[in-house]
Design goal:
The complex is a heterodimer of chains A (273) and B (262). Chain A is mostly helical and 273 residues long. Chain A has helices at residues 2-5, 8-30, 38-45, 47-79, 86-94, 101-112, 117-124, 138-161, 166-174, 179-207, 211-216, 224-233, 237-272. Chain B is globular, with a radius of gyration of 22 Å. Chain B has a single domain (58-261), classed as MetI-like (MetI-like fold, Orthogonal Bundle). The chains are: A mainly alpha (273), B mainly alpha (262).
């Protein structure tokens, strides 16, 4: 009985600073003061907002897939190393997360700018005459976001890979499977769930990005969080709230869809064996 | 397959280089002595560190952030640890549902929390208030405490606490003497994690605070108008602080692990 009581402070904190505020966002977006979908029709009918919404989805998807393609082999490499060496290899992946996101974005501004390091070097080497536009481009946003999200994917993949019994791979090799086949038939299916979870986490966290697109992206790289913040500074709370609801709904929808699909996929695979 | 054995380490090194790239850029810039930003710097010195430590605006933003992060971290760690105890070891429908709610702030984009907290605080007349910011930051730090302390809690053998109860200790005393000591390293790590969630948070602070700046707000306002090497000095200083903090908790954790294993 007393143990249940210890839940109360946590519930109070979450209720007052998370559940009620999210409820208020819904209220602001849907009532003005009577029920209205005016803000949502505005969102759906103005091309600019829909474009920003699709851009948010697209950037998040590209970042998530890029992290998967880069991060999965890295996690695989680390997990195949002797157990004593793994913590150090993971440590090197995690250290960059200790630098503030603002500071890291600042570094990209310095590197990619018109008078930045890359342009200066290329001009000094005589490879180009005039600086290339790199800052304020979609490419810059991808680079900045992947640098931030990659460690998260590697950690998720790595922790699910450590649970795979390495002797299974050896067994497959002894039974005559080529290394490639042993990897594809044994390791890949067993690590798929962790990889999907990691990709999904990166995708969801990317949907809310604010600093990177604002500082190193161009005008067309604006994401949902940037418009919401812009609407708040113009005190259009209702419309800001509607945009926030769209962002939240999209996040939850994708979470449910991918979770369902991946559960089925893993289930099918297990049945097939 | 020999080629893969050679390619993967090279790939790993390239990726680590990419991940470290921002740090490798910012450190030399922070030690440059030039008036303008140049890379590699022509002259080294502590000019930008002096600029940072002697600027009252940067200093007050730094102290505000440290204060808020400390408060948020203590609140999140205390409340989160209590919640972990309340959730218990066995997975039930209720505990699963409550865990999902405790973890939700880590999944929902901060901009949504920021908007809701901002409107709610205005209605209650508590916007532009450091204490409100502490509570909001505690709420977004709570998921990490519940997850980190929770996983450590489930690994602790409950027999010890039960034995303490049988020997006549009250529930609080049994928890404090039997369960809390092995849980301390996880609580400390979670506390430091919650500290940095708050210390690096921009958007909630940006909405909620209007008359006073936190360190990320100061950096943000600075970055939008000019690229000033002071930011490099600030971030290198805090990378150092973080490295020391993280390494010491890791050492604590390892020592505790050894103790448990012995």
């Amino acid at each position: 009985m007393s143990k249940r009581l210890t839940l109360l402070p946590g519930i109070a904190l979450i209720l007052i600073l998370f559940l009620i505020p999210v409820g208020i966002v819904f209220q602001q977006g849907l009532f003005d003061p009577a029920f209205t979908i005016e803000h949502f029709t505005r969102f759906a009918t103005r091309g600019a907002y829909m474009r920003i919404f699709w851009n948010t989805l697209q950037v998040s998807a590209v970042v998530a897939l890029a992290c998967l393609l880069i991060g999965y082999p890295i996690a695989y490499f680390i997990v195949r190393q002797p157990t004593a060496r793994r913590p150090f290899l993971m440590f090197l992946v995690l250290v960059p997360m200790w630098m503030s996101i603002l500071a890291r974005t600042y570094a990209w501004m310095v590197v990619l700018g018109k008078e930045g390091i890359i342009n200066q070097t290329l001009i000094a080497l005589g490879i180009i005459d005039t600086p290339i536009q790199m800052l304020f481009t979609t490419g810059a946003v991808y680079v900045g976001m992947v640098q931030i999200m990659l460690p998260i994917l590697i950690v998720t993949c790595f922790s699910s890979m450590t649970e795979i019994d390495q002797s299974l791979l050896r067994a497959a090799r002894i039974m005559g499977a080529s290394p490639r086949k042993a990897f594809r038939e044994v390791f890949l299916p067993l690590s798929a769930e962790g990889a999907i979870t990691g990709t999904l986490i990166v995708f969801i966290l990317s949907m809310g990005f604010f600093i990177v697109p604002a500082l190193i992206g161009g005008r067309k790289d604006t994401m949902m969080a940037n418009v919401i913040s812009g609407q708040v500074s113009q005190t259009n709370w209702g419309f800001a709230a509607a945009l926030a609801i769209v962002l939240l709904a999209a996040t939850l929808l994708i979470l449910t869809l991918v979770r369902g699909a991946s559960a089925k996929l893993v289930h099918h695979h297990e049945e097939a064996h | 397959m020999r080629d893969r054995n050679f390619l993967l380490p090279v790939f790993y090194l390239l990726v680590v280089l990419f991940l470290f790239f921002p740090i490798l850029i910012v450190v030399p810039i922070s030690f440059s002595n030039g008036r303008f930003l140049s890379f590699p710097p022509e002259e080294f010195g502590l000019r930008w560190y002096r600029a940072y430590f002697s600027d009252p605006v940067w200093m007050s933003a730094t102290f505000r952030s440290l204060r808020v992060a400390l408060g948020a971290s203590i609140l999140a760690t205390f409340v989160g640890t209590l919640s972990v105890v309340g959730l218990g070891r066995r997975r039930t429908k209720t505990s699963g549902f409550l865990t999902a709610i405790f973890v939700a702030p880590a999944i929902v984009p901060n901009i949504i929390v920021a908007l809701g907290v901002f409107i709610f605080a205005i209605r209650l007349g508590v916007s532009d208030n450091e204490f409100t910011l502490v509570c909001a930051h505690a709420a977004i730090g709570l998921p990490f405490v519940v997850l980190m302390v929770g996983s450590a809690y489930r690994q602790i053998d409950p027999t010890l606490e039960r034995a303490a109860r049988i020997m006549g200790a009250g529930p609080v005393r049994a928890f404090l003497t039997a369960t809390l000591p092995p849980l301390t390293p996880a609580i400390l790590s979670a506390g430091i994690f919650a500290f940095f969630v708050s210390f690096d948070e921009l958007i909630i602070s940006l909405f909620l605070m209007s008359s006073a700046e936190t360190l990320p707000m100061r950096t943000w306002n600075d970055l939008r108008f000019e690229i000033n090497p002071t930011i490099a000095a600030v971030s290198v200083f805090f990378v150092l602080v973080t490295t020391v903090a993280m390494s010491s908790t890791e050492l604590l954790r390892r020592r505790a692990e050894k103790k448990n294993a012995a």
